[in-house]
Design a protein that fits this description.
Blueprint (H helix, E strand, L loop, with lengths): L16 E3 L2 E5 L5 H5 L4 H4 L10 H13 L4 E7 L4 E11 L4 E9 L8 H16 L4 E7 L3 H9 L3 E11 L5 E10 L3 H14 L1
Parallel strand pairs: 5-6
Antiparallel strand pairs: 1-2, 2-3, 3-4, 4-5, 6-8, 7-8
Length: 200
Amino acid sequence: MSGGPWSTREVEHDLTLTGHGLTLRPLAPDDAAELLALVDAASWQGFTSPVPRDEDAMSDWIHASVTTPAKLAFAVVGGGGELRGTTSFYDLSRDQGRVEVGSTLYGRAWWGGPTNPAAKLLLFTQAFDGWGLERVALRADARNTRSLAAIERLGAVREGALRSHRVAGDGTRGDTVYFSVVAAEWPAVRAGLEARLARA
């Protein structure tokens, strides 16, 4: 669908989450150029598709994200209206009480600051308090040490690795490390995230 117009029916959700200096709104085709400007090889590490090299490629990636069943893709927007990146719920199963959080990318200007913990606090709050789910999972390529460390700082529990589980954007195979937060752990994780944001 490169460069083509989108039907509003292709945007699969209308959920917007706001707080802690951020707005998470549905990812949209108009975000392609601004999101592309945030992408480089390091920020794209861990995605299974090749690094988008132009606006059409990014538009195609956004289209695939917003039309994937059981996935809710968000644009992460700062208080000044700037697009800071993207993140998603995926594999949402309300019947089974679980969801995964991932497909996360931020521009380098927001690495290591409050953006990721604030976004995860919004997502976890929706999952546990809004939907009443029992489990939120997160995963990363075992070679992506930056993402692994970021997930551990959230307070998620490392569960283990699935060997030769995924093909990276460069065509190499890698292990996937899984983490989770379950409902009984959520109050402590929430308190930890709120403390991080207060310090920030």
